[in-house]
Amino acid sequence: MLTVILLRHGETAYNANGNQYCGRTDIALNARGVDQAKRMQQLLKEYTFDAVFCSPLMRARQTAEIASGAVHALQVDKRLIEVDFGQWEGKRASEFIAEDPQAWDNWLRSPEDYAAGTIGETGRQVIERVNSFYEDALERYDGKTVLIVGHNGINRLFLANQLGMPLANYRRIVQENSALTLFTLDKAAGFSLLKLNA
């Protein structure tokens, strides 16, 4: 069984500025995001983990370094990168919905079949790459605990899929900046959610 401590990265200027869609845009944590990661470091003192993984994007790497207390070398994995939001990158929802309401409606109804921002990734593509990461992690770290720092989009899509929810409902799962989600993966028993957004 693999125990996973899953975090979303700390706050960025995009999060603070009306929740602009950051996606693959590589920006750093803002001051509040750094503070959130420091708070998480205190909370994680009750856990012992054997490895730390993160997305290649700066906001995830910074969060992982701070929250983990740098006790392990970061293992950066490109499969943990945020959803490619295509034409929605850098825009607020109100802006891109006004530009192309059909693209947003398609994504909300069937994210597994439609690309985010028309030219980004489909939910199915996201699930395939993130599941590939977790399958490898379970193989390498079975019986151990790992810390993983990812992003709001990929984390929620992964959790929705593992919980058997339609991907169209992934937005019903809340994961705030630098909040902790805890789950286990087992080769026989599958997925068990222990904590969400703590």
Automatic annotation (TrEMBL):
Its EC number is 3.1.3.-. It comes from the Bacteria. Keywords: Hydrolase. It holds the Pfam family His_Phos_1. CDD domains: HP_PGM_like. It is an enzyme of class 3 (hydrolase). One of its GO terms (molecular function) is hydrolase activity. Transmembrane segments: none annotated. The keyword Hydrolase applies. InterPro entries: His_Pase_superF_clade-1, His_PPase_superfam, PG/BPGM_mutase_AS, PGM_Phosphatase. This is Histidine phosphatase family protein. It comes from Sphingobacterium thalpophilum.
